[in-house]
Amino acid sequence: MCSPPQADPNLHLVFLGATHQAAFEHFYQDMLTNDPQNAEFYSPGAKDFLRYTQQLSEHHLGRNLPQGYVPCSYYWLFDGQVIYGAIRLRHRIDDPFLANECGHIGYDVAPSQRHRRYGTIMLSLALEKASNLGIERVLLTASEDNVASRRVIEANGGQFDGVIYGEVFAEMLARYWIHCAVNE
To answer: Entry's PROSITE patterns (predicted)?
Structure first.
């Protein structure tokens, strides 16, 4: 596995719970104001936070998954007060859409926190989680023109696999693989 970037010891990936509601609301407002297209993904949490956290917990356990979904762990980069970003770790990618366009991991850094290495740190921590799940290598994709996201992936040892045209996302997607050291 690649050597991960040095992380602030106060930053952790956490599951979202009742104690994180105020931090989530701040994260969501930042997304809504500065990245409304991606904020839509988090709108269920703004509408009914406790139900949202329950759904995320169920998805982590592979329960009550919507059609076409796979078990997925949702983590939040948190320092005790602020949510810096969210990262999704799909436990498997066994259908063409996931295997081609989505990959194992997707993430968002709060717009006000971008360009400060939080994406790089968050991905590094998520790779440890993937290893703990027994995933030997993870696939990540990024819009071909999303230089910041591609740098995050490359900083974590991402090996470029090529560019494809996404059938669902209808854009050029850069694909990367990262090997994980599997914990036994």
So the answer is: GNAT
